[in-house]
Design goal:
The structure is a homodimer of 393-residue chains. The two termini of chain A are 29 Å apart. With 393 residues, chain A is an alpha/beta fold. The first copy, chain A, has helices spanning 5-20, 26-35, 37-45, 59-71, 74-83, 119-124, 137-152, 165-175, 197-206, 221-234, 248-258, 273-282, 292-303, 307-310, 321-329, 338-345, 349-361, 376-379, 381-392; strands spanning 86-89, 111-114, 126-131, 156-159, 180-184, 208-211, 237-241, 262-266, 287-288, 336-337, 365-368, 371-374. Chain A has a nine-stranded mixed β-sheet with strand order 1-2-6-5-4-3-7-8-9, sandwiched between helices. The first copy, chain A, folds into three domains: 5-85; 115-303, Rossmann fold (3-Layer(aba) Sandwich), CATH 3.40.50; 307-392, Orthogonal Bundle (Arc Repressor Mutant, subunit A). In chain A, 53% of the residues are buried. Mean pLDDT of chain A is 89; it is low at 1-5, 302-312 and 382-393. In chain A, strand 8 (262-266), helix 12 and strand 9 form a beta-alpha-beta unit. Chain A is built from 19 helices and twelve strands. The interface between A and B is medium-sized, with 20 and 20 residues.
């Protein structure tokens, strides 16, 4: 929310629409695209229904929209959210992950976010690790190891915070002092599943929790399925670790494929029903991966924003001041742990971890085992900036 | 060996050459192609070395050939072999599996064979199942199950008779009353490995044992590696079940791929070093398979000689008399076990099993669970024959 009145009206209207439109509602998405958020909400909350309904949206659907629009109180939602440390990010804002635009009319109306890091930057270097809820010890081990390996190489691990593979992936990333984001099928303030309340707290502290649904919303089966499209679209690729035939994780993987993202699977015994879905994927277009290096070989190849090869992404002096302070706190020539950077920057370790992953996405720093160090680009302060500025003219 | 003198001279010369040329010797293979077997042996056994050696074959190599040629006694080898129930089959003979011609100058000089079935026909519907010697119980289970499934669907399981995966594959096929062939890296009368003497006996009884090396020859490391090219070339495709990095089974798989055969792998836990080689293959061109149906879906698609779709392969009255008797013994309209066919045909069950797999390759019969039944083509005796004869004019 900025001081810009029109922009604020847009944010408020979109916050309201997260109460009106269910995730992935392409009918609503089309109306939103055609009318704009402010006009759509004005129309849905007008005392008399519009004389002529837009083509292709039935009267029952419209009546449902109007009923829910009448109950929406976006200003209160935004206030309550802000009080609980929850942000609301809209398409067009600097924090919006533009990858989600690939979803077309199924693009989320907006995202509710808990946690400090910049989602847009994080998403640039993220991989989804998903799989069965009722996983085997083998699956949990693979998810945890793979996630830890990804985090250690500076990649953000995205998952759905469910029991089983999802939880193991988040834990693996957290345990290695890494970055992880949970995409929920409910409000970001709702602890679901309940047994993961503690885990969700740790993710919110060290990483990000996000979702399309406004605070207080509860998950439904269709919300779970539609949440998966956000995981698929947000990340460079999706790794499935254990999934039975017709598992929800396969939906995520196939969606990732449709969206042109990398789809990967970790094999298991052919005798395990929990690997059958993964093997089905691997008999199609998905790539077999057994460790983090193989994942990064694939997703890093095309997608990596390697400034040395691709030219600068962002000039150093255009960085967010907090990120800039973290960059300044890194000594030249040797990797240091995040805790040491935090002391030097005068900030909390969790915040510094978030910033380091942002700086990694932008090519300024890289992770080396347990520590962080400046890249060529991160070290070359002045001249690089000048080059960038020249390039920008 | 026929009454044809020239042909017999060729057979004797080639039998001798199996003692002169090591498997896969492309230098020797080229000489053989250029000079012919009889002329090559005459030249190698001439009292004085030829005035001019063929280009590209060094004097040391030639001296080695001559030394071994002087010691060869092919007529005795052939006699001893015949006494022990071992045949010798040469390129150009009706029993020669022409797939092996794809090996070019590395084509075997000839094959020594133990067991009744017709190798050429069997090879038309065969799949190689290979893998690690020191396999896990999981790998052995998969090999046995896959081989049993292939045999139950009328496919011949080819392997190398080694401990581990190979043995499990042969046993799986035998146990389901199926067809299996072992390609050895030693003489077909040599029980190697020793612990598989009993298994080799059962394979010779119900199936086929074959190899390039003359009776009494012992295996060497290079003979094992070169044996793999015969397994790869003989079959429609190769399935690898458990193989560590740099395993010999990967050689077979890659050779199969080079030869345009299907290459398949059965996945296992990513934590198992014995699946690492298979996963490496699966990250390349190999196809992931978890059961026999998936294997047949692949190899049966292009390769199957389905007479209904492709026209007759062989007229019924051109069948070998023994095969013809087995075909006549099959009742119309219902599947019967091999044992019942054996009683009706007045032959041994092992021989009948061999013939049934031959008839299956030719499209006359098909396996249904534990029994065998006539196909459309197998049932239509007279008219089909006439059509075939007309087609042949």
């Amino acid at each position: 929310m900025t001081g810009d009145a029109e922009s604020e009206a847009e944010v408020v209207a979109r916050a309201a629409l997260t109460r009106v439109l269910e995730p992935g509602d392409t009918h609503g998405g089309r109306l939103l695209r055609e009318l704009g958020a402010v006009e759509l909400m004005r129309w849905l909350t007008a005392p008399e229904p519009a004389a002529r309904a837009p083509a292709g949206v039935g009267p029952e659907r419209l009546a449902g929209y109007r009923r829910r629009a009448a109950l929406a109180d976006p200003r209160r939602d935004l206030e309550t959210a802000a009080g609980a440390g929850v942000r609301f990010v809209c398409p067009g804002s600097a924090q919006w992950p533009t990858q989600l635009d690939d979803l077309g009319d199924a693009r989320p109306v907006g995202l509710w976010l808990r946690g400090g890091p910049d989602l847009r930057t994080w998403a640039l270097r993220s991989v989804a690790v998903v799989g069965a809820r009722a996983c085997t010890p083998y699956g949990a081990h693979m998810a945890q190891t793979l996630a830890a390996g990804l985090a250690e190489r500076g990649w953000v691990v995205v998952s759905g915070a469910a029991y089983g593979i999802d939880g193991a992936a988040h834990r693996g990333a957290l345990a290695s002092g890494g970055a992880t984001a949970a995409v929920l099928a409910c409000g970001v303030d709702v602890a679901y599943p309940k047994g993961h309340a503690g885990l969700l707290g740790r993710i919110a502290g060290q990483g990000l929790i996000l979702g399309e649904l406004p605070p207080g919303s509860h998950p439904t089966p269709s919300r779970f399925v539609l949440r998966n499209r956000v995981i698929a679209a947000l990340t460079r690729g999706t790794v499935v670790i254990e999934a039975a035939h017709r598992s929800g994780s396969l939906v995520t993987a196939r969606r990732a494929q449709q969206l042109g993202r990398f789809t990967m699977g970790t094999p298991g015994p052919a005798t395990s029903g929990l690997s059958a879905g993964v093997h089905e994927l691997l008999r199609g277009e998905a790539v077999l991966v057994t460790d983090a290096a193989e994942v990064i070989e694939l997703v890093g190849g095309m997608g990596e924003l390697a400034p040395e090869r691709r030219g600068p992404v962002l000039a150093r002096d255009l960085l967010d001041p907090a990120a800039s302070r973290v960059l300044d706190a890194l000594p030249a020539g040797r990797p240091v742990p995040a805790e040491e950077v935090a002391v030097a920057a005068g900030a909390g370790t969790d915040e510094v971890i978030g910033r380091l992953y942002e700086l990694h996405s932008l090519g300024f720093v890289e992770r080396q085992g347990d520590g962080w160090q400046l890249t060529m680009r991160g070290s070359r302060g002045g001249p690089q900036n000048d080059a960038t500025r020249r390039g920008g003219h």
